[in-house]
Amino acid sequence: MPSALSQIRANARSSAAETRIEEAAEQRLRESGYAPLRNVACCCRAATAVLTGDVPSFHMKQIAQTLVLKIDGVEQVENLLEVVAR
User: Fold this and answer.
1) Domains in the chain: ranges and CATH
2) What's the rounded Cα separation, in Å, for the pair 72 and 61?
3) Distance from C-alpha of 57 to C-alpha of 86, rounded to nearest angstrom
4) Predicted TM-score of the model (pTM)
5) How far apart are CA 78 and CA 83, in angstroms?
6) 27-65: per-residue pLDDT in tens?
7) HEC states along the chain?
């Protein structure tokens, strides 16, 4: 059975990994060249990236998902982006 200290360290590593994924996802979206993706937010839990925000088309929603899936450590994407006609 793992000690309390090893569990705290494991959680800290997980949290750091999640933060790294969130930052990488948001940077990748900002630098994608697609202006509508600059305001997409990403939260990561247990290797699942959750995307939130508004985009103008289903195509932009799919591009965001594809970009985030390419990040090391991301196993799946929960795409909660809403398509809002402008």
Assistant:
1) 4-83 (3.30.1340.30)
2) 20
3) 9
4) 0.81
5) 15
6) 999 999 999 999 999 999 989 999 999 999 999 999 999
7) CCCHHHHHHHHHHHHHHHHHHHHHHHHHHHCCCCHHHCCCEEEEECCEEEEECEECCHHHHHHHHHHHHCCCCCCEEEECCEECCC
Count of Cβ atoms closer than 10 Å to residue 71 Cβ: 19
- In one letter, which amino acid is 15? S
Residue with tokens 């948001």: 26
What whole-number distance in Å separates Cα of residue 32 and Cα of residue 69? 14
Q: What does the mean pLDDT of the chain come to?
A: 87
Query: Which one is predicted more confidently, 8 or 74?
Result: 74
